[in-house]
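Q: Helix-turn-helix transcriptional regulator, please. Structure only.
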Amino acid sequence: MRADRLLHILLLLQNQGRLTTRQLAGQLEVSERTIARDMEALSMAGIPVYAERGAHGGWRLSEQYRTRLTGMKPDELVSLFISGQEKALEDLGIRRHFDSAIQKLLSSAPDTVRHSAEDVRARLHIDGAGWHQADEQCPCLPVIQEAVWEERLLSITYMRGEEAEERTVSPLGLVAKRGVWYLVAATEHGMRTFRISRLAAAEMKEESFERPPGFQLAQYWEQSMADFKAALPRYPAKLRFQEGLLDGLSRTRYVKLLHMVQTGQEIEAEVEFNTMESACGIILGFGPGMEVLEPQELRSRVREQAAAIAALYR
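A: Structure for Helix-turn-helix transcriptional regulator:
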């Protein structure tokens, strides 16, 4: 484990330049004292690592110390950067191995290839989690992609229902989530996310813009998704259902299981839906194996819908 960590430290310093003890400890999930011991071990082994003092100091690796491998093409390295499925890597417990592999690939690539791949990673994020696959038409995607790469202002016409909204934005990155493309951009009102299929027009301007210092596309997207989920409406209810329905209910979108008590083959659970209408549709989909206990208005709505369905097929 320590040998792997020492190699990872070398790759991080080689690829990212100066890093503080705190930054290294955070990336490797160890204590700062452990990093200090590791740096001492590297130095004693003859590796040219040294510390820079001051407010902007940190650990550095001598510029002359670099391991290069050849044969990695820019498009090949880029394809690996965008192939990582965050949720799957976390579920399998191999996220750190993926990050380590990326660092090794970066260290083996020539400077021009490495910088190209890092630019892509800063401007393109692939989110494979959660939503269903979609297939949308995005005729504006090529010009948006060019504006993102060239760091040029973008004039867009965005459709909100039947209303067209025109604005000029600074395109910072593209996000693909299950076949749906999004543009993350800085606007006069702050950071915004635009669904590209809803753009009626897009024109790249001559003017360029400066990317916000320290902006991380993947980090922004994850926080944006967390904020979106937190803002969804909540409709609490209490259900009784057969044990065999638990797996299906737990995998249903817009249903959150809060608390469960099992008695024999039956489970009573406190859950959260988004709205009463969506709750009614979901519950009816599980048939007679699920019963609403609370609230009364939801019991009544399910009963009315069930009666209407029975009357239709009578």
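A: Brief note, in case it's useful. The CA atoms of residues 152 and 185 lie 11 Å apart.
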